[in-house]
Specification:
The complex is a heterodimer of chains A (414) and B (756). Chain A has 15 helices and six strands. Chain A is α/β, with parallel strands linked by helices and 414 residues long. Chain B has five domains: 192 residues, P-loop containing nucleotide triphosphate hydrolases (Rossmann fold), CATH 3.40.50.300; 212 residues, 3-Layer(aba) Sandwich (Rossmann fold), CATH 3.40.50.300; 47 residues, no CATH class; 59 residues, no CATH class; 149 residues, Gyrase A, domain 2 (2-Layer Sandwich). Chain B has 26 helices and 32 strands. The longest helix of chain B has 23 residues. Chain B is globular, with a radius of gyration of 27 Å. The chains are: A alpha/beta (414), B alpha/beta (756).
Chain lengths: 414, 756
C-alpha cells in the first residue's frame, strides 16, 4: 500500500477528486455595492447621542453623527477559532441620500489580504462600529485575521455598539432567544422570506470554491446585505423606544428597559419605566424594582410607600411585608410594627403559594429568625425602659441611650 | 504500630513468610547537595532559605545550570525528589529578569496542575513579586479566561486543553506565543503510546505557532524512572535533550515484599486469588493504623476492594469514610477531597487504579499494596514510590495474581529488582494520529508549499490528499483550512476514540446527576445494559446505554454480585508490509490489520466467593480499529501431522507463552499488545499466530517484535522448558483445563519445529 492509499484507508475518501480550483491572481477581492433609499430607514437620521448613551456602556465619539456609524457584518467559514475565515465582509452606512452597503468577497483564500485591507480602510473612515454579536464574534474574528496576515489591529480600536447585547437586555424576558431573524419578525414586523439559514453559509461557500458557480453566493450576499440594513433599522427602533417608553406595548419590555437604564446609571428614567410597567403583567416585578431603586438611592420613605401600595393591591406575595418590616425595624426603629409585619409575612408564607419548597423554607427560616430577634429587641427595650423608670424613680437622673444597633448593613434582601 | 515494628512481626510469622518469595530491604540513601548556581536570581535565595532550603540537591543544581546554558533538559527522578524545583527555579529566574517572559506548564492531568500551582504560588507570594500564575483548563471560569490569556506569566494546563482550547485560538494568546520562553512538561513517562504520540504532534503544532510569532522556547522535561527517558523526550519534542539523572535526594529505608498467594489446587495449579489476599493485607494495615494505598489493576477491582475495606471499619460514627476509592471517572471535586484527606491523615486507606500513580501530592504514605503486577516495571516502581518519603521506613507488598506475568515476577524477583524499567514507546508518525494533527495545524495556520511539520514524513502527499478531499484548499501556494468543522474537537488525545461516555445517576427522578465518565473503548465492557457499575463501593445497575449520545443511565441497586463482560475479537488483513518465507516452510510477516471488537455477553459474579451466578446478553455495535501486526504461519507438513484439537491446544499454549514473553522483551505493558492464534486465519488462510499493537495505528511494537521474532520464540521455549509444572500451568502455556492434557507437549514441539 502506498502512502496515498493508506491515507485513503485512514481518512476515508469522498471518492472523486475535485476540479483544481486555482488562485485567482486578480490582485484584489470582489467588491459589490448595494444602495437603499432613505424611505426604508425612517427616523434613522434623527438618532441622538444622548439616546445612544443610554443603550449601553459603549464609549461614544465626541462629535456624533448618525452618518458616521459603520454597520458591519461578516460571513464566515465556521464558528470560530484560527481556522475560521471571514470570506465576506459587508459594511453599511447612512448617507444624505439613503443607505449604502459595500460588500467585500474573497473569491479564494489568496484574496483575503485584499479584503482585509478594504475592511481596514472602511473602519478607519468611521467614528463608531455597530454590529450584531460583534463583541464576541465578528470583531475578535477580524482581529485574528488581521493578526494572521501580519496587519495592524488599530482600525478595530474604536467605539463599538453590539446590538445583540442591547436586544438581550430589552427582550430576553419576553422573547427568550434574540437572534436577528426573530427580532426582524417580532420587533420590526418585517419577516424575511427565502432567507438562507446562517448554518448553511459555510457549506455554500465551500461548494462555490469547488465549482466556481457565483450563483451559489447570491443568497449569502443578499442575506448579508439584509442583515446590515436591519442593523440600522433595529438601532433606530431601539432609540425610539428609549425616547418614548410610554409608547411601548409590552410591559415586559418597559420593565426590561428600566433595568437596563438603571444598570447604566439613569435611575430617574429607570423609575419612570418601572412606574409605566407596574400597571401591566410585570406589575409586581416592576413595583419591587421601583422600591429597590428608591432604597438604593437613599429614598427609604419613597420605597416604603411603594411596598405599602403593593400590600394594598395584594401584589408581590411576602416580599413587601419583609421589606417593610426591615424598614420599620431599622429606619423607623419601630420593632412592634416590624413584628406585626413579620408575623403577617409568616402567615402568608404558610399558605405556601410559592412553588419551590426549598425557597419557601429558607424564607420561613429567615422570618422566624427575624421574629425572634424582634421579640428579643422589644424585651430588651422594655427592660431598659423599666430600668430607666426605676432609676428615674430613685432620683439617679436620666441617661440617654444610644445603644440601638443599626443592623441595616447586615441585612440581606430576600 | 509503625512500619518497622510491623515488618519485624511479619518476619517472625512463619504462616505469612511461607508465601513470601523475597523480602528485599532497600537501604536508606543520604542526600547529596550542591550550592545554588550563580545564574539563579538573587531574590529567590532568601525565599528558599525561609523554606529551609539552603542548598540544592545535585540533580536540581545541574538542571538549573543546563537550562541556563540554553539546553533542552530532561530530568529523571523518582517520586518526592524535589523535581519541581528543577523547572520552577529557571522559570521564576527568567520572569524576574524579564517581566514579559512567559512559561507554559503541561501536566498530564488537571489534578496535577492544581497541585503544582499551589506550590508555585507559595514561592511567588513569599517573594512578594508580581508573577501571575494561572491554571487554564476546563474548570477555568469563562470570566477569568481573558485575564489568563493576556496577563498570565505562567500558564498551567494539560495537553488536552492546549490541543483544543489554546492552539486553535492562538490569536487570543498573542502575548503568550510572542514571549514564550520555557515549556515545562512534567511526568513525561506517562506520554507513551497513543497519548504520547498525540502529545508529540501537539508540540509540533505549538512550535510551529511559536515560529510564526517569533519565539524560540526551551524545554524542561521531567520523567519518572524509565529505560529510555532521553529517547522518549527527544521523540516527544523532536530535538536533542540533555539528560540529568543523578538523583541527589535522600530516601528512608524501604521493604519490598513479594507475596505469592498459596496454591489451593495443586493439580490444576490454582492459587488463592489476589483480591482476597490483598483484602487481608490491606485490612491488617488498616487495623494497625498504618496509612496505606492499595493499587488495583482495574476500576472494578478498586470498587470491590473499597467495599471490603469500608465494611471492615464501618460503624455508626462514619468511620467507613476513612477508606476511600479513587480512580478515573470520579469527579474532580471528589478526587481533590480524597487527596486532601490523605494529606491531612483523615483517610487511612485508599484503593486506587493507576490514577494515583502520577505525582499528585498525597503526602508520604507508610505502606503500599500492589494487588497484581501493574504490567510494567516502571509503573510498579511509581506505585511503590507512593509509600515512604525522605525520612521514615516504608513497606511495599506485591501480591501476585495467577496471571502468568505476575507469576513470572513473583518467582523471579531478581528480574524485577535488577532489570531496567521499560522503554516508553511512541510513534508521532502513526498515520491516524499524524493526519488528525496535520488537520488541526492547517486550521491553526495555513501550510505553505514545502513546509514541514516537525520531522513528519510525507507532508506533501498528506496535504495533497487533504486538498483532494476538500479539507484544505490550495491557493497561492498555501493550503488553507476549508472545512466547517473544528478539527481539534474530533480527536481525544488519550484514546483513539473521540468522545467519552457520561454516566448519569437517575435513582432520584427529580435530580439526575452526572457521576462520572468513561472512554469509548471501555464503555461497552463496563456500561452495557444490566451491567453492575460501581462507584465508591456503591452499586448501580446500568438501565440504558445510549451509544449514539454517549450516555449511560444508572440506578442505585443493592445486589450480591458484580458483572464482567466478554470481549470478542475478529481480525482481517489490510496490507502486508514485509514477508519472509522461512526455510522450514512457514511464513512470517508484518503488516496492517483491522481488529473488530464486540461485547456479546457478560457474567454475573458473586461477591466474596467469586462464583459465576449467570449470564446476560449484550447488544452493542462493533468497534473497529486499524493497527499494525506481525504473524507466523505454521509449516503445512507440521499442521498435517497433528490432529486438529491437538494443534489448537498447542497453538493456544504458544500464544499464552508469547503473551508472557513479548511484553518483557518489547519492554511494554501487557495491555499494549495482543497475541491471538487462529487455526484458520482470515489473514493468511492458514493456522497463524498473530501479535498486534493494541491501539489504532500502532505505536511500533509489532515492527519491533518482527525484528526480534526468532528471539521471542526462543524465549517462549525457554519459559515452557524451565517451568516445573507437569502438563501446563498459568505461568507457562496455561492451565491444563484450558489447553488440554497434551497442550504443553504440543506447544514445545511446535516451538522447536519453528526454530529449526
Amino acid at each position: 500500500m502506498n502512502l496515498r492509499d493508506k491515507l485513503r484507508a485512514v481518512g476515508g475518501s469522498s471518492g472523486g477528486g475535485k476540479p483544481r480550483s486555482r488562485e485567482t491572481g486578480n490582485g484584489d477581492c470582489r467588491h459589490l455595492a448595494v444602495f437603499r433609499p432613505m424611505s426604508e430607514f425612517p427616523g434613522a437620521m434623527e438618532v441622538r447621542r444622548e439616546t445612544l448613551a443610554r443603550l449601553s456602556a459603549a464609549e461614544l465619539p465626541e462629535s456624533f453623527d448618525p452618518r458616521r456609524i459603520l454597520y458591519l457584518d461578516t460571513e464566515t467559514t465556521g464558528l470560530g477559532g484560527s481556522g475560521t475565515v471571514a470570506f465576506l465582509v459587508g459594511m453599511g452606512y447612512l448617507t444624505d441620500g439613503g443607505f449604502e452597503v459595500h460588500q467585500f468577497l474573497m473569491r479564494d483564500y489568496d484574496e483575503e489580504p485584499f479584503l482585509l485591507r478594504h475592511v481596514e480602510a472602511g473602519l478607519n473612515r468611521f467614528d463608531m462600529i455597530c454590529t450584531f454579536n460583534g463583541a464576541t464574534f465578528d470583531l475578535p474574528l477580524l482581529e485574528g485575521r488581521f493578526l494572521m496576515n501580519r496587519m495592524g489591529r488599530d482600525s478595530l480600536q474604536r467605539p463599538h455598539l453590539d446590538l445583540l447585547q442591547v436586544a438581550r437586555r430589552l427582550w430576553k424576558l419576553r422573547l427568550g432567544r434574540c437572534n436577528l431573524g426573530r427580532l426582524e419578525e417580532v420587533i420590526l414586523g418585517n419577516p424575511r422570506e427565502n432567507d438562507l439559514p446562517g448554518s448553511e453559509v459555510p457549506q455554500r461557500y465551500f461548494a462555490y470554491l469547488k465549482t466556481r458557480q457565483e450563483s451559489l453566493l447570491q443568497d449569502i450576499l443578499d442575506h448579508n446585505a439584509q442583515d446590515i440594513a436591519s442593523l440600522c433599522v433595529l438601532l433606530t427602533h431601539m432609540a425610539e423606544m428609549y425616547e418614548h417608553p410610554e409608547r411601548i406595548r409590552f410591559s415586559e419590555d418597559v420593565y426590561s428597559m428600566g433595568r437596563a437604564l438603571e444598570r447604566f446609571h439613569y435611575p430617574e428614567e429607570a423609575r419612570r419605566c418601572y412606574r409605566l410597567a407596574s400597571r401591566g403583567r410585570t406589575g409586581s416585578l416592576a413595583s419591587a424594582a421601583l422600591a429597590h431603586s428608591y432604597r438604593r438611592g437613599g429614598e427609604r420613605a419613597e420605597a416604603a410607600r411603594v411596598w405599602e401600595e403593593m400590600i394594598a393591591a395584594r401584589r408581590g406575595g411576602v416580599l413587601p411585608y419583609i421589606e417593610l418590616a426591615k424598614y420599620q425595624e431599622h429606619t423607623m426603629r419601630n420593632p412592634a410594627e416590624a413584628l406585626r409585619l413579620t408575623e403577617k409575612a409568616l402567615a402568608l408564607s404558610s399558605e405556601a403559594t410559592l412553588r419551590d419548597s426549598g425557597t419557601v423554607q429558607e424564607i420561613k427560616n429567615e422570618l422566624q429568625y427575624r421574629r425572634r430577634r424582634l421579640i428579643r429587641k422589644m424585651e430588651a427595650a422594655d427592660r431598659k425602659a423599666r430600668e430607666a423608670e426605676a432609676a428615674a424613680a430613685s432620683g439617679e437622673g436620666e441617661r440617654k441611650s444610644n445603644g440601638i444597633r443599626n443592623d441595616v448593613q447586615g441585612e440581606q434582601g430576600l | 504500630m509503625n512500619v518497622t515494628q510491623l515488618a519485624d512481626r511479619l518476619r517472625q510469622d512463619p504462616k505469612f513468610m511461607e508465601n513470601v518469595t523475597r523480602w528485599e530491604v532497600i537501604p536508606p540513601r543520604p542526600a547529596r547537595t550542591a550550592d545554588f548556581p550563580a545564574c539563579l536570581d538573587e531574590r529567590l535565595k532568601p525565599v528558599l532559605a525561609q523554606r529551609g532550603i539552603h542548598a540544592l540537591y545535585t540533580h536540581q543544581a545541574r538542571s538549573v545550570e543546563a537550562t541556563n546554558r540554553g539546553e533542552d533538559v530532561t530530568v529523571v527522578t523518582p517520586t518526592a525528589s524535589g523535581k519541581t524545583m528543577c523547572y520552577n527555579l529557571p522559570v521564576l529566574s527568567a520572569i524576574l529578569n524579564n517581566p514579559d517572559a512567559r512559561a507554559l506548564y503541561l501536566f498530564p492531568t488537571k489534578a496535577l496542575s492544581a497541585d503544582q500551582v499551589s506550590e508555585l504560588y507559595e514561592i511567588i507570594e513569599a517573594m512578594g513579586v508580581d508573577i501571575k500564575t494561572y491554571t487554564y483548563d476546563g474548570d477555568t471560569p469563562a470570566a477569568a479566561r481573558k485575564a489568563v490569556r493576556q496577563a498570565g506569566h505562567i500558564v498551567v494546563t494539560n495537553p488536552d486543553m492546549l490541543h483544543s482550547g489554546i492552539l486553535p485560538h492562538h490569536t487570543k494568546w498573542v502575548k503568550l506565543f510572542e514571549n514564550l520562553r520555557y515549556i515545562v512538561i512534567d511526568e513525561i513517562h506517562s506520554y507513551r503510546g497513543v497519548f504520547g504520540s498525540n502529545l508529540a504532534n501537539v508540540l509540533r503544532r505549538l512550535l510551529r505557532l511559536c515560529e510564526f510569532y517569533g519565539s524560540h522556547p526551551q524545554f524542561i522535561l521531567c520523567s519518572a524512572t524509565i529505560a529510555n527517558p532521553k529517547e522518549l523526550a527527544e521523540t516527544l519534542i523532536g530535538r536533542p535533550v540533555t539528560l540529568i539523572d543523578d538523583n541527589g535526594a535522600p530516601m528512608g529505608e524501604r521493604h519490598f515484599v513479594f507475596y505469592n498467594p498459596p496454591v489451593v489446587n495443586r493439580q490444576l495449579g490454582i492459587r488463592k486469588g489476589a483480591i482476597p489476599v490483598t483484602r487481608s493485607i490491606s485490612g491488617m494495615l488498616l487495623k494497625n493504623g498504618i496509612q496505606a494505598i492499595t493499587f488495583a489493576r482495574s476500576r472494578l477491582t478498586v470498587e470491590v476492594l473499597t467495599r471490603y475495606l469500608k465494611d471492615m471499619v464501618r460503624d455508626p460514627l462514619g468511620n467507613a469514610g476513612r477508606v476511600r476509592g479513587y480512580r478515573g471517572g470520579y469527579l474532580p471535586t471528589e478526587r481533590r477531597e480524597i487527596e486532601r484527606g490523605l494529606r491531612a491523615g483523615q483517610v487511612d486507606a485508599v484503593v486506587s487504579t493507576n490514577a494515583l500513580e502520577l505525582g499528585i501530592d498525597i503526602g508520604g504514605l507508610d505502606a503500599c499494596v500492589l494487588c497484581g503486577y501493574p504490567g510494567t516495571i516502571a509503573s510498579a516502581w511509581q506505585q511503590a514510590g507512593r509509600a515512604g518519603r525522605r525520612q521514615s521506613a516504608s513497606i511495599v507488598f506485591f501480591v501476585a495474581s495467577s496471571a502468568a506475568i505476575d507469576q513470572y515476577i513473583v518467582t523471579h524477583p531478581d528480574y524485577f529488582l535488577h532489570q531496567s524499567p521499560e522503554n516508553a514507546l511512541l510513534n508521532p508518525d502513526n498515520l491516524y494520529i499524524l493526519m488528525s494533527h496535520v488537520k488541526c495545524a492547517a486550521f491553526e495556520l495555513p501550510f505553505e508549499e514545502g513546509d514541514g511539520f516537525g520531522n513528519a514524513p510525507g507532508m506533501e502527499e498528506m496535504l495533497d490528499y487533504l486538498d483532494g478531499e476538500n479539507i484544505v484548499h490550495r491557493a497561492d501556494g498555501k493550503y488553507h483550512w476549508s472545512a466547517e468543522d473544528f478539527p481539534a474537537s474530533e480527536i481525544s488525545l488519550r484514546s483513539a476514540a473521540a468522545e467519552n461516555f457520561i454516566i448519569i445517576d437517575i435513582t432520584d427522578p427529580a435530580r439526575h446527576r452526572v457521576v462520572g465518565e468513561m472512554d469509548r473503548f471501555t464503555a461497552p465492557m463496563l456500561l452495557h445494559e444490566n451491567a453492575i457499575y460501581m462507584h465508591e463501593g456503591r452499586q448501580f445497575q446500568v438501565e440504558k446505554l445510549d451509544f449514539d449520545a454517549c450516555k449511560a443511565f444508572i440506578r442505585a441497586v443493592d445486589t450480591g454480585y458484580y458483572t464482567d463482560a466478554d470481549l470478542n475479537i475478529n481480525l482481517s488483513l489490510l496490507d502486508v508490509e514485509k514477508e519472509e518465507t522461512v526455510p522450514r516452510g512457514y511464513r512470517t510477516a508484518e503488516g496492517e490489520i483491522k481488529v473488530t471488537a464486540l461485547v456479546t455477553m457478560f457474567k454475573k459474579i458473586r461477591f466474596d466467593t467469586h462464583e459465576t451466578l449467570g449470564f446476560g446478553h449484550v447488544r452493542l455495535p462493533e468497534t473497529d480499529m486499524h493497527t499494525t501486526a506481525m504473524w507466523w504461519t505454521l509449516p503445512p507438513d507440521l499442521v498435517a501431522s497433528l490432529p486438529s484439537d491437538t494443534l489448537k491446544n498447542g497453538m493456544m499454549g504458544v500464544a499464552n507463552l508469547l503473551r508472557i514473553v513479548c511484553p518483557l522483551y518489547l519492554m511494554c505493558s501487557p495491555q499494549d499488545i495482543a497475541v491471538v492464534y487462529q487455526v484458520k486465519s482470515p489473514i493468511t488462510g492458514e493456522p497463524t499466530l498473530i501479535l498486534y499493537d493494541n491501539c489504532p495505528g500502532g505505536i511500533g511494537l509489532s515492527q519491533k517484535a518482527f525484528g526480534m521474532r526468532e528471539m521471542l520464540m526462543e524465549k517462549a521455549l525457554q519459559v515452557v522448558r524451565d517451568c516445573g509444572c507437569e502438563s501446563g500451568c498459568p505461568s507457562c502455556v496455561g492451565p491444563v483445563g484450558e489447553i488440554g492434557e497434551d497442550g504443553k507437549k504440543t506447544a514445545m514441539y511446535l516451538l522447536k519445529e519453528l526454530l529449526k
